[in-house]
Amino acid sequence: GFMKMELVSHVIRMVSSKYGPPHAKSGNDKLGQVSATWRMGPRMEVRVHRAWPDTTTYLTFTDTPSYRLLQTERAKQEQQQTRQKALTHSHAF
Q: How would residue 93 be classed by pLDDT, with cut points 50, 70 and 90?
């Protein structure tokens, strides 16, 4: 959907026809960032979004508990890498 500004509206309508109206929607379909989110029970989230100035439209399906776990693990790895880098640089002095 590169450079197709109207695609985000089309995808939101398509997802809405299957799952009903979104639980949350923000932005202007015609210009700028847009996001529409559907919550499918406690585990699943469906999201249609377009960033700006990139006009590519994205449709994502997320298992929310697994995604939170992934984010926690990433944060731990980043902290560990930062500590390792600090130890490496501290030996230089």
A: low
